[in-house]
Amino acid sequence: MTPTSLFYLLIAIIVIVFLIDSLLDILNARHYNDKIPEELSDVYPQKEYEDSIAYKRANYKFKLVSSAISLVMMLLFFFLDGFAWVDRLARSFSDNPVVVGLIFFGIIMIGSDILSTPTVYYKIFVIEEKFGFNKTTRKTFIIDKFKGIIMMIIVGGSLLALIMWFYELTGKSFWIYAWTLVSIFTVAMNMFYAKLIVPIFNKQTPLEPGDLRNTIEAYSKKVGFQLKDIFVIDGSKRSTKANAYFSGFGSEKRITLYDTLIKDLDKEEIVAVLAHEVGHYKKRHVIINLLLSVALTGITLWFLSLFIANPLLSEALKVDTPSFHIGLITFGVLYSPISEITGLIMNVVSRAFEYQADDYAKETYNSEALINSLKKLSKNNFSNLTPHPAMVFIHYSHPTLLQRIRNLRK
């Protein structure tokens, strides 16, 4: 394969992935007005159902336009030898390959973040605002941006620097050391994310003593779930949308409830949602997902080690000096079809786990309370009740509301 043919292969992959995603969005949009199944007839009052369709259409049109603009900008960057220009700029600051790589990715990532900020701003302050979801102030938006960039520089930069250093030190064997590093980081984040990262952006407080806490603790004791604490996060600081999640394992496991969830659901429904989260822990889903993530990372890094030293990867992007950072860019595009397939498989596994967690909640608590909570959350989030089956199969990490209700009532 010549550098030119590889270059056009990269372009073809980028365009094909865009076209497939756009086709799925178009197919999905055609189902917005489908007849609502009988089991879901009580989710939306008529006026709110019409608002939910308008919300989905607004997001659909916005995504088509913004993704098309992103595609054009990316293709221009490729055809105008943007990567070669950034590489030369990075090399003007240092001769050290690790430093050059960090400067290169720093310019790419920060530039990409700046260019994407208008679209993120529009989605939050126009679309989400119009439909009553947004609670983010412009001050919070700006502070979040700066915090995100700082986190990217400190955490992402450190990991990337170590991986490039491993490559310079060990050559093709770098993937073993990089895999070990990323695996340790992944386990640490799973255990301590709620303690280390969440407080940077949100305030977490222990759930106050009272009827809800007593009911949750009684349920946890009943099913043998040793709960260190229950936290409430100030999700209403940014959105009216509600959520709950389980994090950590061992002595660090905790349940976090959004304050919007406590506001939207009654006690029985909240405990049913918690029972679902406990089901994930009891069924070992947290550990299995962690192991799958570590395994996929190892496979990806091994594939990367087979190609990274090939000068063709750099030559395809018109870069004179072969390097790890340019090879990583080219490999990332080449690997994206495989990544799409592994993502699809992970979604299939995730949906199976959601059914199992629902079953656990049904067996240990109350299936109708969980159904009611799912209906309320779908209504309050303007969820799509009639998605296209292809969209569900490829992109949904959770079964649809209809599928979950039928499973809980079977």
Summarize the structure.
The chain is built from 16 helices and 4 strands.
Provide structural commentary:
It contains 16 helices and four strands. The radius of gyration is 23 Å and the shape is globular. It has helices spanning 3-29, 46-79, 82-91, 97-130, 138-170, 174-196, 198-201, 211-223, 259-264, 267-282, 285-307, 312-315, 324-364, 367-380, 389-395, 401-409; strands at 204-206, 230-233, 244-247, 254-258. It is mostly helical. 24% of the residues are buried. A four-stranded mixed β-sheet has the order 1-2-4-3. It starts with a helix and ends with a helix.
Rg value: 23 Å
Shape: globular
Strand order of the largest sheet: 1-2-4-3
The number of helical elements comes to: 16
Main structural class: mainly alpha
Number of strands: 4
**Main beta sheet:** 4 strands, mixed
| Residue runs with pLDDT of under 50 for 5 or more positions | none
Which H/E pattern describes the elements? Answer: HHHHHHHEHEEEHHHHHHHH
Mean pLDDT: 91
First and last CA, distance: 55 Å
Number of domains: 1
Helix content percent band:
over 70%
Oligomer: single chain
Strand content: under 5%
